[in-house]
Amino acid sequence: MSSVRAKGIYKSLPNLAKSWQSSEAGQAPFVRGPYRTMYQQKPWTMRQYAGFSSADATNEFFKKQLENGQTGLSVAFDLPTHLGLDSTDERAQYDVGKTGVAIDSVEDMKRLFDGIDLSSVSVSMTMNGAIMPILACYIVAAEEAGYASSSLRGTIQNDILKEFAVRNTFIHAPKPSLEMSIDVVEFSQKKLPNFNTMSISGYHFQEGGATPELELALTLAHAKVYLLACQKRGLDLNTIARRLSFFFASGMAFFKEIAKLRAARKLWHDLLVELGVTDEQALRMKMHCQTSGVSLNAESPYDNLTRTTVEAMAAVMGGTQSLHTNSFDEAIALPSDFAASLALGTQQILQQETGLIDVVDPWGGSYMMETLTSEMIDYVNSTLISLESGEGVLAKVEQGDIAFFIHQQAMQQAQLSKPFVTSISDQQDKPQVSPRVIHSEKALESQRLSINKLKLVRNNRLVNQSLEKLKEKALSGQNLMPYVVAAIKHRATVGEVTEALCQIHPRFFPQQKISNELLDSEDLKTVRSRYQQFMNKNGRALKVLFTKVGLDGHDRGAKQVVATLKAVGLDVTYLPVLTPFSEVQSMIQNHHFDVVGISSLAGAHLDFSKAVFSCIDPVKTALIVGGVIPDHDFESLEKIGIEGIFTRHSEIGLVVNRIIELVEAK
Ligand code: SCA
Ligand code: 5AD
Hints:
This protein is an alpha/beta fold. It has 25 helices and 14 strands. The chain has helices spanning 55-67, 79-82, 106-112, 131-144, 174-191, 203-208, 212-232, 237-240, 254-274, 280-283, 303-317, 337-353, 367-388, 393-398, 401-416, 440-457, 460-476, 481-489, 494-504, 522-538, 556-568, 581-590, 605-613, 634-640, 652-665; strands at residues 45-50, 72-75, 123-125, 154-156, 195-196, 198-201, 244-250, 287-291, 322-324, 543-548, 571-575, 595-600, 622-627, 644-647. Helix 7 packs parallel to helix 9. The model is unreliable at 1-6 (pLDDT under 50). 5'-deoxyadenosine is lined by residues 49-51, 76, 99-100, 293, 326, 330, 334-335.
C-alpha cells in the first residue's frame, strides 16, 4: 500500500509512454472520463442520500430538495427495512425510522414517491439485504401509479458482498445472497432496462478503515465475483455490464482520490476486456461518489463544510457521474434541514460558480497525477492477485477474512490518523448546532397502524399462496424476482417475504474475528501498566461484556475497543452486530461482568441504555455507552445511570482508564 505515495516530490518525468496516458475522455480505457464532453454536456447528478422516519416525512423532504435544485433522489432506508424486518417485529422495536425511512409494504413505497415524477427523476435505492422485496415494492408502486417499468430510471445498490465486510446489513449467507443479487440483475435487465442493477461499492470500505487504494482493490475484487456469477448464469456481459455502476468514497486525500477514480475506469475496462467484453457502453465505468463521513468532526462542526467541499472537488475532478455531499452536522446526527441545504448548496456552487464543469479531466497530463494514477493501477493489480489467491474472494467473504482485514486496517488508521483542526474550539465562540431529532415513536406507531390496516384489507389467502409459491421456487433455484413481485402485489409485507426466504436460506450470523495485536502507543503502554497494578492488587482479570445493540451494523469502533481491551489483558466477551437482545439479556443475567459496554451509531443509544440498565445490578456492574452520541443526550444518559459516555473522538486509552476507575470505585 505504501507504494502509492501520499507524499512525493515529482521531480522526474513519469513514463508517459503508456498508451492509456494519451487516450482522451470518452475513449478506451476511459481514464480521462466515460464521456468525451463530460460535464459540458451534462453536469454530474446532485443526488443527496436521505431518509427520515416515515414515508410521508421523507417524501416532503425529497420534494423540497428537488425544488431547491437537487437533480436526483437517493433513498436511505431504516435498519429494520434493510434486514427485512417489519416495523412490528420485536427485533426492530428500537430501530424503526431511526437512520432512514421505514418501508414495510408497497403502500409505504407509494407514499414515499407520491407526487414525484418517476419518469423524469432518477431514483437510487441503497438496499442490499432485503433487496428483492424492496425492489419489488418500487416496481409495483410505480406501476400502480401509472409508470411503465421500462420508463423508470435509477440504481439499486444490490452489492451484498461488501455487507459481510462492512455495514452488516446482510440477511442470508453469502452464497444464496449472491444468487439473489444476480436474480435482481437478470430480472432488471429485462424489466427495468434503464435501471442500474448494481452499485458496486467501495465507499463503505474506506469508511470502515481502508485506504483509497485498498477501497478500489476490494471493490474490483467484488465486481469480478459478480461478473463471473453472471457469466455462470449464461448472461451476456456485453449487456449486463452496461448497467453495472460503481460507488466510491471521496475522502481527504485529495490527489489520491482523483487518481483513484481515473485508475478505477481503466481497471474496470481491462477487467471486462479480459472477460471478453467488447461493447463500448459496457466498458465505460460510471460512478457515484459520496464525501466521507469519518472525515467529519463533531467538536467544530462548521469546519466540516470545508472538508466536504474539498472532497467534493476531488470527486468532480475525478469525473464522477453523481455525487452526495455530506452535511456538516453528520458527525452528530442525521442532517438537519439547514445543514442539508448547505450540503446541496456546496454542489450547486461548484457546478454553477467555479467553471469546474467546463474542463474535462483537469488533472490529465500532470506528472504528479499521472504517476499517482499509474501507481494506483499497479497497487490494485497486485492486491487483486493476493485477494484472489488461495480459495478466492468469495471464500474470504464467507470466512470473514475481508471483514478482518478491514478491521486490521482500522486499527492501524487509528494510530496513524492526524488530529482534526478545530478552528472554533472555544466554548463561547462556538455557534449553536441544532441536530435533527428523530421522532421514532411516532414513526413506529404509524407503521404499526398501517401494517395492521394492510393485513385487514388484503386477501390473506392470495398472500399465503404467493409466499408458498416463493418458498417452492427458492428450493428450485429459479430466478425468484417474479415470485417476489407477485407476493408484494398481493400486499405481502417486506418482513413476510423475507421470512419466507429465510425458511429456505436461514439468517446468517458470521464468525467474528478480532485482532489481538496491541498497537504500539505511549498511551496504551501507560494504560497497560495501570491495568497490571489493578491485577496485582485484586488478583483477577477485569470482566467486560461489550455489545453492539439493535440492528446497527457499524462496528468499526466496537471492534477496535474490544481488540484494545483484549490486548491490554481484560477478560472481554463480545456480542457482535445482530445479536438478539434476549441473548444480551441472558448473558448479563447468567454471568458476572464488572462493566457492560454498549455501542450504538444509529440513534438508539437512549432506548438501549434503558433496556440494558434494567438487566444489570448497578451496585456490581457499571454500564458505559459509546458511539454517535449528541451532546444533548448526555444528561439523559447520566440520569439513566450510565457511568461512562464515549463519542467517536474518544481515545481508546481513555475508555480503558475509565473502566478501571469504575471498577475500583465499586
Ligand atoms: C451523461 N450522459 C451523457 C453524458 N453525461 N451522454 C453523453 N455525454 C455525456 N457527457 C448520459 C448517460 O449516459 C445517461 O444515459 C444519462 O445521461 C444520465 O446520466 P448519468 O451520468 O448516468 O447519471 P445518473 O443517471 O445520475 O447515473 C449515475 C450512476 C447511477 C450511473 C452512477 O448508478 C447513480 O445514480 N448512482 C447513485 C448511487 C447512490 O446514490 N448511492 C447512494 C449510496 P443512459 O442512462 O441512457 O446511459 S449511499 C450509501 O450507501 C452510504 C451510506 C450507508 O447507508 O451506509
Ligand atoms: N440521511 C442522510 N444521510 C445519511 N447517511 C446515512 N444515513 C443517512 C440518512 N438517513 C450518510 C451520512 C453517513 C454516510 C454513511 O451516509 O453521511 O456518514
